[in-house]
Amino acid sequence: MVWLKKFTFRFLIILVLLYAILLIPEPSGEVIGISSESAFLWNQDEKWDYLEEVFQQAKEQDTTTLNAYISLLIFSLEDRLDHLKDTIFLPGNEEFEGLLPDFFSITPLIAVNHKHIDWFLDYYNRVRMMIKEQSRNWDMESEQGRVTVYKNLYGMRAAVEEVLLQISGRSFQAALLVNDEASLTPATDILGIKVHSGDLLVSRGGAPVSALISRGNDYPGNFSHVAMIYIDPDNNIPYLVESHIERGVAIASVEEYIKDTKLRFMVLRPRANLPEILEDPEIPHKAALYIYEEALSRHIPYDFKMNFNDPSKMFCSEVGSIAYKKFGIQLWKPVSTISSPGIINWLHAFGVENFVTQMPSDLEYDPQLTAVAEWRDPETLFKDHIDNAVMDVLLESANSGEKIKYNIWLLPPIRVLKAYCMLLNLFSIECIIPEGMSATKALKNQDFEKRFENTKKETEILAGKFIEEKGYTPPYWQLVRLAEKAKDGR
Description:
Order of helices and strands: HHHHHHHEEEEHEEEHEHHHEHEEHHHH
Number of helices: 17
Structural class: alpha+beta
Strand order of the largest sheet: 1-11-8-4-5-6-7
Number of strands: 11
CATH class of the largest domain: Alpha Beta
Shape: globular
Radius of gyration: 25 Å
CATH architecture of the largest domain: Alpha-Beta Complex
Largest sheet: 7 strands, antiparallel
Oligomer: single chain
Strand content: 5-15%
CATH topology of the largest domain: endopeptidase fold (from Nostoc punctiforme)
Distance between the termini: 62 Å
Helix content: 40-55%
């Protein structure tokens, strides 16, 4: 039995040594590009509180008085838009700068009296169409150009959604048609929206990382994912080409696309009067066919580094970017920037190395693209807002120096699991740890998701109490405050 004891002892020594080797931390990786820009901040808490007070007061007013006041504001807003719509103006135009504050002013009244909601949504559409058209003449590389487009498009959407969330039962039409930009490519229908081959869908998923992608930007947005539509001209069947963290670039049917949680999406289409498309109207379809065939012909892993210049791997934005670049159209004018140190540290913890890149939300502001339609799930819009509020609070903690952590003692078994996953990946089989994600990053992701879900759970409880006490859905600024309380355990 001496040999057995020796064998057991040696085996244990080997296990201990192997465990010790597997405990060695991985290199932190390289940070390739950091923006010199600064993040956009609203810094208007007093304004938001004032609007909430107006909302509460409007609930106490008689309908006739409220309607009369709303009618006066509608006249003022229409008059301002009339002065703007037939002229070419630059960011900073005094008449234009007053548009958003006026829109904010009428928002709490529409949230109380829904009689004018159709006008409200129509006005929102007309303004954003005008801004998209005017921005074609602006220097979108300048801070003033970027801030003007972002502030108005994002701000007006936020105002619209505050109104929608106050509708009893939240029963509103999910699809909002904006502008049916002309296209000569094959077309079909998705959830009541006419789409064309070459259209881009920016969407928001329901996972914590989706909230991180949409908010972790110098211009925090509403979208975390990009897909490109290819429509087979022989049978008009649509396919969506997209890149997933779990499996890289893949092709999905409409049913598969929708089944993969979508809290919202927007359809974007290249302008029909782009010089490249005037010369060849089939470019959108050719670009879609190109990326569709690329996805069929080779395995394209997910690009955790977010390097949009490397087509060997692709993150979701690259699917559309690379496809159109092939035919002379460079999307994302200007590129996305991430400058907040805390957000950089958190994204770097998941493998991101490029912080001058292409973020899904910023595609909306590209003057080369027209917003065709927007779709929001009435049942989950409030969830989207809670997710955003929780993420904004967590990112404030990141910028205060809080880091993503992991249990180093779990690293050896997770590395063994990762080796098993790599073996499955060789046979194109998905595994619990995605291809391209290391064991360390998987553990950090687990820590991140746990923080997010714990804070979210408490925020939902506090939001429920708010509704019970106040009798209305908490607006976004209140959700942020509730999320702060939830995170701090107050």
